[in-house]
Amino acid sequence: MALINIERSIGILDQLIAALPDDDRACFHRIFHLSTTVGRLNPPETMHRWIKSYFGSVEAVKTQRIVKITNLITMEGALFNELRASRPVEAKGSSDLEETIASNRGDPFCTPLASTPADTFGRVRGKHSITASNVAKYDGFHGVVVFDEHNPLVFSSEEVSDYIDTALAWAHKAHDVDPEARYFFFMWNCLWKSGASIIHGHAQMTLSRDMHYAKVESLRRAALRYRQTHGVNYFDDLYAIHKALGLTLENGPTRILVYLTPIKEKEVLLISQKLDQNLKDSIYKVLKGFIERLGVQSFNLALYHKPFGRVYPEPCPKQSRRESQKAQDKHLADAEEDWSGFPVIVRIVDRGDPNNKASDIGAMELYAASVIASDPFHVAEALHEAFTH
Ligand SMILES: [Zn+2]
Description:
- Helices cover about 40% and strands about 20% of the residues.
- By secondary structure, the chain is of the alpha+beta class.
- The strands form two sheets. Strands 4-5-7-6-11-12-10-9-8 form a nine-stranded antiparallel β-sheet, sandwiched between helices.
- A hairpin with a 2-residue loop joins strand 8 and strand 9 (about 255-260).
- Helix 2 (about 20-30) packs across helix 10 (about 235-245) and helix 8 (about 155-175) crosses helix 11.
- The chain is globular and about 80 Å long.
- The model has no long low-confidence stretch (mean pLDDT about 90).
- The protein binds zinc ion.
- The site of zinc ion (ZN) has 6 residues, from loops.
């Protein structure tokens, strides 16, 4: 194709789509809506020097290509500005940040047994971590995996695996206490830009009842509708179209993609049939690529998992008709909750420079669509290097 020697970038996504084979192009349009426009402005002479130093040339600023992508299945949306996206992504260390992290040693998570509460069912001790009960809970079961390592940006593949295994072991303990609690959610907020209130490395997990969290449930419903409409698995198609565009990474059976409608900068999705060692290793590799190749210091990680073992209560002959009917209705409601084909999904996103006081999200992200400065094609290239070196 004519595009073979052109550098791939989000600004020419329409051309990249046009050059795809028919099947791939159809797949793209089943999932995404793409709209491209140009913004223009007239800067006064007095601004030229500043513009050149910041954006390279005045011409580059006078006409700016804006790419608006909407995921029609999940209704997630992103706005890319080629001008912002074309700015180089460079890995940078911050001595200020290192100092802040080091000066925080001795925080409560450095002595978890003395300074954090246990759950009523006790603690889970991992090889490199221990669980605590969250003091101010989001949900009935809400725990913390406190890492042995204080520095939240220092971890090995083995440690990342241990953090997830420990959270999962905690969730199974909680599930034993309350079999109705079966919706597991794992999250890792790293440094304050991501919402973490404690610097010391830690992840969190919840086990919810009755229904999964709104965003997870919304994705389940969207994927189910997709399968009912098109007869194929949404996640298979989502991966296939990213692969056709060169936005995927390989690490064994785990499917990794740099998402076209990211919630915020550099979002990567990892999709796996099971929460297995390969997925855990892939998570480590993406995080390592983020930190070492893309200069990420603060990130959020979330893991979506289908509910634990579905044990329906048998109708009890001693129950009143009303009670029995309620149990029956609940059984039906549960049966309608079809999780077949829903994989384990991990989402990882960069939350920006910890030294920058401005929040990375504003009214656009909360109420309209996400404004993105990182080019998914550049992120994929950087991660590809991290995966192969
Ligand atoms: Zn600490």
